[in-house]
Every structure is written in C-alpha cells, then in structure tokens.
Design goal:
Number of helices of chain A: 1
Largest interface: A-B, 37 and 46 residues
Shape of chain B: elongated
Strand order of the largest sheet of chain A: 3-2-5-6-7-9
Number of helices of chain B: 2
Structural class of chain A: mainly beta
Oligomer: heterodimer
Number of strands of chain B: 10
Strand content of chain A: 35-45%
Strand order of the largest sheet of chain B: 1-2-3-4-5-6-7-10
Distance between the termini of chain B: 49 Å
Distance between the termini of chain A: 86 Å
Chain lengths: 164, 226
C-alpha cells in the first residue's frame, strides 16, 4: 500500500520534471522593438495640418549613406548617433534647398531582455535649425526618444514636429 | 501568449494533483497527524539550475514549515539567486539577490491510513526580493550610425513584491524525511523601479518582464521534532 503510493508519487515526479523541461526549453527570440529613433512628423505652418512631402530625402550629417529618399511621406524615423550627444540631419524637400537640423540630447542605456539586449534611450535637450530655407519652425512635442516600431501600420508617438 | 502557457501549465499541474486529494470511495479516512516540531528542507531543483541554463543561473532555496492547528501550516521560504548572461557580442548581464516568502498552507488530504503525515495542500505566499543588477561590455547597435561599443549600465539595487497561489504535496518517504513539490502562480504587485532597464530575473519570482509567472519547486525536507 505504502509502496504503491510511493511509486505513484515518483511517477508523478517524473511527469512534472519532463513538464518543466518542455516549458523552459521553448526557444525565445526578440519579440519587441529594440531600435530607438526620433519620430518626426511634417506639418503645414499656415494650417497646422499634416503635410505630405512629395519628394523627400534625409541624410545624416557626416554620414555617407542616405536615410530616406521617398515620395509622399508625412513623417520619418530618424535614429540618433549612440556614440555622441549631437546628431545632425540634412533634410531636403523636392530637391530644392536643403535645411540642416541639429538635435542635442542626453543618453541613457537600458537593458530590455536577454533576447533583445540593450538599447540607448535619449532625452532631447535642444533642436536647432541652422538654415531655414524651406523649414519655418521646429517644435519638440515629446523630448523622450524611445523604442519605435518600423512596421508600416504602426503610428509611433511624435517627438518633433517640422513645420513648412 | 506565454502567460497563457503558464496558466495552462498551472491548471495541468492542478489536474495532476487532483486525484491525490479528491479520490472518492468507501474507505475509511483519517485526519492527518499533527506534525511536531519544525520541518526544514531545501529546493533540490535549484541545484540543477546551472545545468538547465548553461551556467547562466545559480541559486539556493531553503524552506521551513510548522503545524499551526487542524489543517493549517505556517510556511516560509528564503533563498538567493545569481544570473550571469554572457552574450559576447552585445552585453554581459549580472544580477544577484535574495528573497523571502511567508504564507499559509492548508491541507486538503484525509488519509486512507491512520497516523499519516502526508499532506496535499493549497496555499498562498507573500514574496519579497532585493537584488542588484548591472550590465557591462555593452555594444549598442547604431543601425544607421556607427555601433557604440564599450558602454555599460551601472549597478542598481531594486526590489519587488508579489503574491503566490500554490498547490503542493509533502510525502513522508522515510521516517521524518519528506519529498515534496509545489506548483505556483505568482502575481507581481510591486515591480522593480528602474527607468530604463527591465530585470532579467527577479530572485524567487522569475522573469522580470512577465506577470503572472508559473513556477515549480521540488523539496527534500526533514522533520526536526522538539
């Protein structure tokens, strides 16, 4: 009687052990975004409404590659340089005259998860418009730069509004 | 999705334990022996942590319980847990901390033999943990910009509070020696406060990013009588 109870218990022990093994051996991968970027939206200064930029190109200052070269966009995701506290972008609409914006920020590193690793969050302290050929004004709507989604159907919370 | 898996895991464990406490029949049932003294033990599953997690985790947990009255036992658990995640290319994460849990177990078993010390129980716990974490050798991917190597996240001390619902058994396999197991569903009530980082592990609780969390313990205990 006692022996059979013991066997039953041992069996259950084994079942549970294999059960825990299956729970923990599931392969994990990074399911959340681990990329941060400044969320920029474009507006019309006279109406305040969102402005569709017909032919837009955005390039980082001191960066040889182009970040954006797109038609008909109302916003852009501009990553900040994680090695320094200042990032510049040259923004050109309709290939006419380029404007340069300089974003200053403080950086804070954070750990997301074992799969997604670490990320640098930033707090925008200042945005300077060095030229105002076509850009009229820049407004910081939310200084805290956090992880963003690059999926097409996701609307990220705005950091900066650029007014034309 | 993963919390669904944990809840279903808890329910399956519950169903596995069910036949032990609720088997019908016409056999005579006896109430359990009132246990004398204190039962102390260790969670043997903690010894297998380095094996199960590629030396990424190490821990120890001790448990103690006492018979209060009737079917009620007062229980406490305490332990420490260390995690060391080494991702050569991206970061090196370290955490180290202690935890304690106190609560009540309620025995649901009426034994088929007299003078049985075996119990099948449901219980709850209040859990508390204090731990430190730091990340070194961090390389932040720059994507459009150059990567930022040689970064770190300085050490922070964090705390967390949670509640647990649990089911378990303790069986006396040799005189005064018990084996036991518990399955637990843990609900975080106060999360660690860190503006930028999510803890990888909260000692005694589990994954810092999940709520609720499902957990299992395997105990070997000895009843000290006095």
């Amino acid at each position: 009687m006692i022996r059979s109870a013991l066997i039953a218990k041992t069996l259950m022990w084994c079942v549970m052990l294999s059960f825990i093994w299956t729970i923990f051996s599931c392969e994990e991968f990074c399911e959340e975004s681990n990329r941060t970027a400044v969320v920029v939206n474009f507006y019309d200064i006279s109406t305040g409404a969102a402005k569709t930029m017909t032919k837009m190109s955005i390039k980082g200052v001191d960066n040889d590659s182009m970040l954006y070269r797109k038609v008909n966009i109302t916003g852009a995701l501009c990553p900040l340089n994680p090695t320094v506290d200042v990032t510049g972008y040259v923004i050109t609409n309709d290939s006419i005259i380029a404007d340069t914006i300089i974003i200053s920020y403080t950086r804070h590193n954070g750990f997301i998860s074992s799969e997604c690793g670490c990320v640098t969050y930033s707090d925008i302290t200042d945005v300077k418009l060095t030229t105002n050929h076509s850009i009229k004004e820049i407004k910081i709507t939310n200084p805290s730069v956090t992880t963003v989604s690059y999926r097409a159907n996701v609307i990220n919370a705005e950091n900066i509004g650029i007014y034309y | 999705m993963s919390s669904m898996r944990k809840i279903s895991g808890f329910i399956i464990s519950l169903l596995l334990l069910l036949p032990l406490c609720c088997k019908g029949g016409d056999t005579v049932r006896y109430p359990i022996n009132p246990m004398k003294g204190i039962r102390i033990g260790v969670d043997v599953s903690k010894f297998f942590l380095p094996l199960m997690y590629n030396n990424e985790r190490m821990g120890f947990e001790a448990t103690a319980d006492m018979h209060v009255k009737g079917n009620i036992f007062a229980t406490a658990e305490a332990g420490w847990l260390r995690a060391n995640l080494d991702n050569d290319t991206a970061y090196q994460y370290k955490s180290n901390g202690v935890y304690a849990k106190v609560g009540i177990d309620y025995n649901m078993l009426k034994s088929r033999r007299p003078n049985s010390n075996d119990i099948v129980y449901a219980g709850f716990r209040y859990g508390f943990s204090v731990f430190g974490q730091e990340v070194d050798d961090v390389t932040i991917p720059g994507y459009y910009w150059p990567d930022a190597p040689g970064q770190s996240i300085s050490k922070t001390t964090l705390s967390a509070h949670w509640l647990e619902l649990l089911l378990g058994i303790k069986a006396e396999v040799l005189k005064n020696f018990y084996i036991g197991l518990t399955c637990r569903l843990k609900f975080k009530i106060v999360s660690p406060k860190d503006d930028y980082s999510t803890p990888y592990l909260i000692p005694g609780y589990g994954s810092g990013s999940s709520n609720p969390v499902f957990g299992l313990n395997y105990y070997i205990s000895y009843n000290l009588k006095f």
